[in-house]
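Sequence only, no structure available. Ideas?
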Amino acid sequence: MHKEIISEIIETGLSSVDEVEVTLVSGESVSIELKRAIAAHAGESHENALIIRVIASGRIGSSGTSTLSEWRACLDSAIASSHLAEAVPWGGLPDPVSLTGDPMVFDSSIRTDPDIALSFCNRLLEGASEYPDAEVVGGGAGLSLGSVLLANSKGIWYEEDHTSVSVSLETIADQSTGFEYDRSFSLDIDPFEIGRRAAELASTSRNGVPIETGTYDLLLSPIAFSGLVASLLQSAVNGRSVHMGRSFLAEKLGKVIGADHLSVIDDPFYPGGLGNCRFDAEGVPSRKNILIEDGVLNSFIYDLKTAYRFGKESTGNAQRGGLGGGVTIGMHNMVFRGETMQEPGEGRCISINDVIGAHTANPLTGDFSVEVQNAFIMEDGIIQAPVRKAMITGNIFEMLGQITGMGPTPRRVGSVIVPPVRISGMRLVG
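Reply:
I predicted one. C-alpha coordinates follow.
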Protein backbone atom coordinates (compact mmCIF):
# COMPACT_ATOMS: atom_id res chain seq x y z
CA MET A 1 0.00 0.00 0.00
CA HIS A 2 2.78 2.41 0.88
CA LYS A 3 4.42 1.84 -2.49
CA GLU A 4 1.25 2.83 -4.33
CA ILE A 5 0.78 5.99 -2.25
CA ILE A 6 4.40 7.08 -2.62
CA SER A 7 4.29 6.47 -6.37
CA GLU A 8 1.11 8.54 -6.55
CA ILE A 9 2.71 11.37 -4.54
CA ILE A 10 5.64 11.51 -6.95
CA GLU A 11 3.43 11.32 -10.04
CA THR A 12 1.06 14.00 -8.76
CA GLY A 13 3.91 16.26 -7.67
CA LEU A 14 5.64 16.09 -11.05
CA SER A 15 2.63 17.78 -12.64
CA SER A 16 3.59 20.95 -10.74
CA VAL A 17 7.33 20.79 -9.99
CA ASP A 18 10.57 19.49 -11.48
CA GLU A 19 11.50 16.94 -8.83
CA VAL A 20 9.87 15.19 -5.89
CA GLU A 21 11.41 13.39 -2.93
CA VAL A 22 9.44 11.35 -0.39
CA THR A 23 10.61 10.03 2.97
CA LEU A 24 8.47 7.68 5.05
CA VAL A 25 9.58 6.94 8.61
CA SER A 26 7.82 4.40 10.81
CA GLY A 27 8.67 2.92 14.17
CA GLU A 28 7.57 1.65 17.53
CA SER A 29 9.15 1.68 20.97
CA VAL A 30 8.67 0.65 24.59
CA SER A 31 10.35 2.02 27.69
CA ILE A 32 10.43 1.57 31.45
CA GLU A 33 11.31 4.56 33.64
CA LEU A 34 12.87 4.12 37.06
CA LYS A 35 12.23 6.57 39.88
CA ARG A 36 14.62 5.72 42.64
CA ALA A 37 14.70 1.92 42.59
CA ILE A 38 11.11 1.45 41.44
CA ALA A 39 9.76 0.87 37.93
CA ALA A 40 7.44 3.89 38.01
CA HIS A 41 6.30 4.30 34.43
CA ALA A 42 5.93 2.20 31.29
CA GLY A 43 5.60 3.84 27.91
CA GLU A 44 4.76 2.71 24.41
CA SER A 45 4.77 4.74 21.22
CA HIS A 46 4.16 4.30 17.50
CA GLU A 47 5.57 6.75 14.98
CA ASN A 48 4.68 7.49 11.39
CA ALA A 49 6.07 10.45 9.50
CA LEU A 50 5.70 11.40 5.85
CA ILE A 51 8.06 14.10 4.57
CA ILE A 52 7.75 15.51 1.06
CA ARG A 53 10.34 17.74 -0.59
CA VAL A 54 9.88 19.36 -4.00
CA ILE A 55 12.17 21.35 -6.27
CA ALA A 56 11.00 23.75 -8.96
CA SER A 57 13.53 25.88 -10.86
CA GLY A 58 15.92 25.74 -7.92
CA ARG A 59 13.26 26.63 -5.37
CA ILE A 60 13.03 24.01 -2.63
CA GLY A 61 9.94 23.43 -0.52
CA SER A 62 9.11 20.79 2.04
CA SER A 63 6.35 19.70 4.38
CA GLY A 64 5.53 16.79 6.64
CA THR A 65 2.64 15.01 8.28
CA SER A 66 2.14 12.17 10.72
CA THR A 67 -1.00 11.03 8.87
CA LEU A 68 -0.24 9.22 5.62
CA SER A 69 -3.78 9.66 4.31
CA GLU A 70 -3.25 13.44 4.31
CA TRP A 71 -0.50 13.25 1.72
CA ARG A 72 -2.30 15.53 -0.75
CA ALA A 73 -2.44 18.40 1.75
CA CYS A 74 1.20 17.73 2.63
CA LEU A 75 2.21 17.83 -1.04
CA ASP A 76 0.27 21.06 -1.60
CA SER A 77 2.02 22.60 1.40
CA ALA A 78 5.44 21.58 0.09
CA ILE A 79 4.67 23.08 -3.34
CA ALA A 80 3.38 26.27 -1.74
CA SER A 81 6.53 26.62 0.34
CA SER A 82 8.67 26.23 -2.77
CA HIS A 83 6.90 29.25 -4.29
CA LEU A 84 8.10 31.32 -1.33
CA ALA A 85 11.66 30.01 -1.38
CA GLU A 86 14.60 31.77 -2.98
CA ALA A 87 16.05 30.00 -6.02
CA VAL A 88 19.45 28.40 -5.40
CA PRO A 89 21.96 26.65 -7.67
CA TRP A 90 20.66 23.12 -8.08
CA GLY A 91 22.02 20.19 -10.05
CA GLY A 92 19.25 17.69 -9.39
CA LEU A 93 18.40 14.89 -7.00
CA PRO A 94 20.64 11.81 -7.20
CA ASP A 95 20.02 8.90 -9.54
CA PRO A 96 19.59 5.38 -8.11
CA VAL A 97 22.60 3.14 -7.63
CA SER A 98 22.89 -0.44 -6.42
CA LEU A 99 23.20 -0.57 -2.63
CA THR A 100 24.55 -3.89 -1.41
CA GLY A 101 24.72 -5.40 2.03
CA ASP A 102 22.36 -6.10 4.89
CA PRO A 103 20.78 -3.38 7.05
CA MET A 104 23.61 -1.99 9.13
CA VAL A 105 21.82 -1.02 12.35
CA PHE A 106 19.30 -3.81 12.67
CA ASP A 107 19.02 -6.81 14.98
CA SER A 108 16.15 -9.15 14.09
CA SER A 109 16.09 -10.56 17.63
CA ILE A 110 14.95 -7.25 19.16
CA ARG A 111 11.28 -6.97 20.07
CA THR A 112 9.48 -4.02 21.64
CA ASP A 113 8.55 -6.07 24.68
CA PRO A 114 8.13 -4.20 28.00
CA ASP A 115 9.17 -7.34 29.89
CA ILE A 116 12.58 -7.16 28.23
CA ALA A 117 12.92 -3.49 29.19
CA LEU A 118 11.90 -4.36 32.76
CA SER A 119 14.49 -7.13 32.92
CA PHE A 120 17.15 -4.61 31.86
CA CYS A 121 16.01 -2.27 34.66
CA ASN A 122 16.30 -5.08 37.18
CA ARG A 123 19.84 -5.79 36.02
CA LEU A 124 20.69 -2.08 36.34
CA LEU A 125 19.53 -2.18 39.95
CA GLU A 126 21.44 -5.39 40.64
CA GLY A 127 24.61 -3.78 39.36
CA ALA A 128 24.06 -0.66 41.46
CA SER A 129 23.65 -2.80 44.58
CA GLU A 130 27.36 -3.58 44.40
CA TYR A 131 27.83 -0.18 46.09
CA PRO A 132 25.28 -0.05 48.93
CA ASP A 133 26.25 3.53 49.88
CA ALA A 134 24.98 4.79 46.50
CA GLU A 135 21.24 5.34 46.11
CA VAL A 136 19.46 5.10 42.78
CA VAL A 137 17.94 8.41 41.67
CA GLY A 138 16.45 7.29 38.38
CA GLY A 139 17.09 5.67 35.05
CA GLY A 140 15.43 3.31 32.66
CA ALA A 141 15.57 1.12 29.59
CA GLY A 142 14.03 1.20 26.15
CA LEU A 143 13.79 -0.78 22.93
CA SER A 144 12.72 0.42 19.50
CA LEU A 145 12.50 -0.76 15.93
CA GLY A 146 11.57 1.02 12.76
CA SER A 147 12.30 1.71 9.12
CA VAL A 148 13.08 4.51 6.70
CA LEU A 149 11.92 4.52 3.09
CA LEU A 150 13.33 7.11 0.68
CA ALA A 151 12.04 7.54 -2.88
CA ASN A 152 12.44 10.24 -5.50
CA SER A 153 11.36 11.10 -9.01
CA LYS A 154 14.75 9.99 -10.40
CA GLY A 155 13.89 6.40 -9.53
CA ILE A 156 15.49 5.99 -6.11
CA TRP A 157 13.70 3.55 -3.82
CA TYR A 158 15.83 2.81 -0.78
CA GLU A 159 14.72 1.16 2.46
CA GLU A 160 16.58 0.62 5.72
CA ASP A 161 15.44 -1.08 8.93
CA HIS A 162 16.85 -0.10 12.30
CA THR A 163 16.68 -1.16 15.95
CA SER A 164 17.82 0.41 19.20
CA VAL A 165 18.40 -0.67 22.79
CA SER A 166 19.28 1.80 25.55
CA VAL A 167 19.80 1.76 29.32
CA SER A 168 20.82 4.44 31.83
CA LEU A 169 21.11 4.92 35.58
CA GLU A 170 21.74 7.91 37.84
CA THR A 171 22.90 7.50 41.44
CA ILE A 172 23.88 9.62 44.44
CA ALA A 173 26.11 9.02 47.47
CA ASP A 174 26.09 11.89 49.96
CA GLN A 175 26.51 14.91 47.65
CA SER A 176 28.28 13.02 44.85
CA THR A 177 26.42 11.79 41.81
CA GLY A 178 27.12 9.17 39.18
CA PHE A 179 25.60 8.56 35.77
CA GLU A 180 26.21 5.88 33.18
CA TYR A 181 24.43 4.72 30.04
CA ASP A 182 24.77 2.70 26.89
CA ARG A 183 22.97 2.45 23.59
CA SER A 184 23.27 -0.07 20.79
CA PHE A 185 21.34 -1.40 17.83
CA SER A 186 21.80 -4.95 19.16
CA LEU A 187 21.50 -6.77 22.47
CA ASP A 188 25.21 -6.51 23.24
CA ILE A 189 24.77 -4.04 26.11
CA ASP A 190 25.43 -5.00 29.74
CA PRO A 191 22.84 -3.41 32.07
CA PHE A 192 24.48 -4.89 35.18
CA GLU A 193 27.80 -3.22 34.38
CA ILE A 194 26.08 0.08 33.56
CA GLY A 195 24.33 0.04 36.94
CA ARG A 196 27.51 -0.97 38.75
CA ARG A 197 29.52 1.77 37.07
CA ALA A 198 26.94 4.48 37.86
CA ALA A 199 27.00 3.52 41.55
CA GLU A 200 30.78 3.25 41.57
CA LEU A 201 31.16 6.79 40.23
CA ALA A 202 28.93 8.22 42.95
CA SER A 203 30.54 6.17 45.71
CA THR A 204 34.16 6.85 44.80
CA SER A 205 33.56 10.57 44.18
CA ARG A 206 32.67 11.21 47.84
CA ASN A 207 34.98 13.15 50.16
CA GLY A 208 36.67 15.00 47.34
CA VAL A 209 39.83 16.97 47.98
CA PRO A 210 40.56 20.50 46.70
CA ILE A 211 43.03 20.83 43.86
CA GLU A 212 45.36 23.73 43.17
CA THR A 213 44.88 25.81 40.06
CA GLY A 214 47.56 24.90 37.55
CA THR A 215 48.56 23.03 34.41
CA TYR A 216 47.93 19.30 34.35
CA ASP A 217 47.81 16.28 32.11
CA LEU A 218 44.18 15.23 31.74
CA LEU A 219 42.81 11.79 30.97
CA LEU A 220 39.38 12.41 29.46
CA SER A 221 36.95 9.51 29.35
CA PRO A 222 35.18 8.89 26.02
CA ILE A 223 32.10 10.60 27.50
CA ALA A 224 34.03 13.70 28.59
CA PHE A 225 36.02 13.98 25.35
CA SER A 226 33.04 13.51 23.05
CA GLY A 227 30.95 15.96 25.06
CA LEU A 228 33.65 18.60 24.88
CA VAL A 229 34.96 18.13 21.34
CA ALA A 230 32.57 16.26 19.04
CA SER A 231 29.72 18.74 18.61
CA LEU A 232 31.96 21.74 18.04
CA LEU A 233 34.26 19.87 15.65
CA GLN A 234 31.27 18.61 13.67
CA SER A 235 30.06 22.19 13.30
CA ALA A 236 33.54 23.35 12.29
CA VAL A 237 33.82 20.87 9.38
CA ASN A 238 30.25 21.55 8.20
CA GLY A 239 30.65 22.81 4.63
CA ARG A 240 27.86 25.34 5.05
CA SER A 241 29.50 26.88 8.12
CA VAL A 242 32.88 26.87 6.40
CA HIS A 243 31.76 28.71 3.26
CA MET A 244 29.63 31.16 5.22
CA GLY A 245 32.66 32.12 7.30
CA ARG A 246 31.23 30.69 10.52
CA SER A 247 33.94 28.10 11.15
CA PHE A 248 37.33 28.42 12.81
CA LEU A 249 38.62 25.94 10.21
CA ALA A 250 37.42 27.90 7.16
CA GLU A 251 40.91 28.79 5.89
CA LYS A 252 42.77 25.79 7.26
CA LEU A 253 42.20 23.03 4.68
CA GLY A 254 45.50 21.22 4.17
CA LYS A 255 47.02 22.72 7.30
CA VAL A 256 48.04 21.12 10.58
CA ILE A 257 45.30 21.50 13.19
CA GLY A 258 46.08 18.65 15.59
CA ALA A 259 48.71 16.27 16.91
CA ASP A 260 50.62 14.47 14.15
CA HIS A 261 49.11 11.12 15.17
CA LEU A 262 45.49 12.32 15.30
CA SER A 263 42.98 11.22 12.67
CA VAL A 264 39.23 11.84 12.62
CA ILE A 265 37.04 9.87 10.23
CA ASP A 266 33.35 10.11 9.45
CA ASP A 267 32.68 6.42 8.94
CA PRO A 268 29.16 5.18 8.04
CA PHE A 269 30.37 1.56 8.05
CA TYR A 270 32.05 1.32 11.46
CA PRO A 271 31.34 -2.08 13.09
CA GLY A 272 28.61 -1.52 15.66
CA GLY A 273 28.29 2.18 14.84
CA LEU A 274 24.93 3.74 15.66
CA GLY A 275 25.18 6.09 12.68
CA ASN A 276 25.79 3.37 10.12
CA CYS A 277 23.81 3.70 6.89
CA ARG A 278 24.12 2.97 3.19
CA PHE A 279 22.60 6.27 2.02
CA ASP A 280 21.99 9.72 3.43
CA ALA A 281 18.73 11.65 3.77
CA GLU A 282 18.88 12.74 0.11
CA GLY A 283 19.70 9.33 -1.34
CA VAL A 284 23.40 10.02 -1.87
CA PRO A 285 25.40 6.83 -1.14
CA SER A 286 27.25 7.03 2.15
CA ARG A 287 31.03 7.04 2.10
CA LYS A 288 33.93 7.23 4.49
CA ASN A 289 35.22 10.80 4.83
CA ILE A 290 38.67 11.36 6.30
CA LEU A 291 38.35 14.75 7.99
CA ILE A 292 41.69 14.94 9.77
CA GLU A 293 44.63 12.72 8.81
CA ASP A 294 47.82 12.70 10.86
CA GLY A 295 46.90 16.10 12.26
CA VAL A 296 46.16 17.71 8.88
CA LEU A 297 42.69 19.01 7.99
CA ASN A 298 41.74 16.92 4.98
CA SER A 299 38.11 17.64 4.07
CA PHE A 300 34.73 19.13 4.96
CA ILE A 301 31.27 17.53 4.74
CA TYR A 302 28.40 18.54 2.44
CA ASP A 303 24.79 17.93 1.54
CA LEU A 304 23.52 18.49 -2.02
CA LYS A 305 22.30 22.07 -1.59
CA THR A 306 25.56 23.28 -0.06
CA ALA A 307 27.67 21.34 -2.54
CA TYR A 308 25.82 22.78 -5.55
CA ARG A 309 26.01 26.30 -4.15
CA PHE A 310 29.76 26.25 -3.62
CA GLY A 311 30.85 24.04 -6.50
CA LYS A 312 31.61 20.99 -4.39
CA GLU A 313 30.40 17.38 -4.26
CA SER A 314 28.00 15.97 -1.70
CA THR A 315 29.84 13.77 0.76
CA GLY A 316 26.67 11.87 1.67
CA ASN A 317 26.15 13.76 4.92
CA ALA A 318 22.58 15.01 4.56
CA GLN A 319 20.41 14.44 7.61
CA ARG A 320 16.79 15.18 8.27
CA GLY A 321 15.11 15.77 11.61
CA GLY A 322 11.42 16.16 12.32
CA LEU A 323 8.37 16.70 10.18
CA GLY A 324 9.60 20.01 8.81
CA GLY A 325 11.52 18.12 6.17
CA GLY A 326 14.51 20.46 6.24
CA VAL A 327 17.90 18.94 5.46
CA THR A 328 20.94 19.60 7.62
CA ILE A 329 24.56 18.44 7.45
CA GLY A 330 25.74 15.92 10.02
CA MET A 331 28.07 13.03 10.79
CA HIS A 332 27.39 9.31 10.61
CA ASN A 333 30.01 8.00 13.06
CA MET A 334 32.78 10.36 14.18
CA VAL A 335 35.76 8.07 14.80
CA PHE A 336 38.86 9.39 16.62
CA ARG A 337 42.17 7.59 16.25
CA GLY A 338 45.61 8.38 17.61
CA GLU A 339 48.77 6.95 19.07
CA THR A 340 47.80 4.06 21.32
CA MET A 341 48.93 4.15 24.94
CA GLN A 342 48.51 0.81 26.69
CA GLU A 343 48.52 2.70 30.00
CA PRO A 344 47.07 6.17 29.27
CA GLY A 345 46.91 6.87 33.02
CA GLU A 346 50.64 6.40 33.57
CA GLY A 347 52.50 8.99 35.63
CA ARG A 348 50.41 11.70 37.25
CA CYS A 349 47.22 12.99 35.66
CA ILE A 350 43.66 14.05 36.40
CA SER A 351 41.09 11.51 35.22
CA ILE A 352 37.77 13.11 34.23
CA ASN A 353 34.63 11.11 33.57
CA ASP A 354 32.35 13.92 32.35
CA VAL A 355 32.09 17.68 31.90
CA ILE A 356 29.24 20.13 32.45
CA GLY A 357 28.66 23.14 30.21
CA ALA A 358 30.31 21.99 26.97
CA HIS A 359 27.42 23.57 25.04
CA THR A 360 28.70 27.01 26.10
CA ALA A 361 31.93 26.65 24.08
CA ASN A 362 32.37 29.39 21.49
CA PRO A 363 31.77 27.72 18.09
CA LEU A 364 33.79 30.34 16.21
CA THR A 365 36.89 30.48 18.41
CA GLY A 366 36.78 27.16 20.27
CA ASP A 367 37.22 28.80 23.67
CA PHE A 368 35.58 26.93 26.53
CA SER A 369 35.24 26.76 30.29
CA VAL A 370 33.57 23.67 31.73
CA GLU A 371 33.04 22.09 35.13
CA VAL A 372 34.45 18.60 35.64
CA GLN A 373 32.33 15.78 37.03
CA ASN A 374 33.62 12.61 38.69
CA ALA A 375 37.25 13.70 38.46
CA PHE A 376 40.11 11.90 40.21
CA ILE A 377 43.81 12.45 40.91
CA MET A 378 45.57 9.48 39.36
CA GLU A 379 49.10 8.08 39.74
CA ASP A 380 50.25 5.34 37.36
CA GLY A 381 46.69 4.31 36.63
CA ILE A 382 45.66 4.13 40.30
CA ILE A 383 43.12 6.58 41.74
CA GLN A 384 44.60 8.52 44.66
CA ALA A 385 41.69 10.81 45.56
CA PRO A 386 38.52 12.31 44.09
CA VAL A 387 38.59 15.99 43.14
CA ARG A 388 36.04 18.10 44.99
CA LYS A 389 35.41 20.78 42.39
CA ALA A 390 37.32 22.13 39.39
CA MET A 391 36.96 23.68 35.96
CA ILE A 392 38.88 23.20 32.72
CA THR A 393 39.53 26.26 30.60
CA GLY A 394 41.13 26.34 27.19
CA ASN A 395 40.56 26.15 23.47
CA ILE A 396 39.23 23.05 21.78
CA PHE A 397 41.20 23.53 18.56
CA GLU A 398 44.45 24.05 20.49
CA MET A 399 43.59 21.00 22.58
CA LEU A 400 43.64 18.82 19.45
CA GLY A 401 47.35 19.57 19.19
CA GLN A 402 47.95 18.66 22.84
CA ILE A 403 46.70 15.08 22.55
CA THR A 404 49.58 12.81 23.57
CA GLY A 405 47.84 9.49 23.13
CA MET A 406 44.71 7.39 23.44
CA GLY A 407 43.76 4.26 25.33
CA PRO A 408 43.62 0.92 23.52
CA THR A 409 39.85 0.41 23.70
CA PRO A 410 37.41 2.74 21.91
CA ARG A 411 33.90 3.29 23.25
CA ARG A 412 30.68 4.15 21.48
CA VAL A 413 29.22 7.41 22.85
CA GLY A 414 26.18 8.00 20.68
CA SER A 415 27.59 8.39 17.17
CA VAL A 416 31.10 9.17 18.45
CA ILE A 417 33.68 6.40 18.74
CA VAL A 418 36.72 7.31 20.83
CA PRO A 419 38.98 5.73 23.49
CA PRO A 420 40.10 7.57 26.64
CA VAL A 421 42.23 10.53 25.52
CA ARG A 422 45.37 11.85 27.28
CA ILE A 423 45.92 15.60 26.82
CA SER A 424 48.94 17.51 28.14
CA GLY A 425 49.27 21.06 29.40
CA MET A 426 45.62 21.77 30.21
CA ARG A 427 44.66 24.48 32.68
CA LEU A 428 42.62 23.31 35.64
CA VAL A 429 41.05 25.87 37.95
CA GLY A 430 40.53 24.57 41.49
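The chain has eight helices and 21 strands.
Hope that gets you unstuck.
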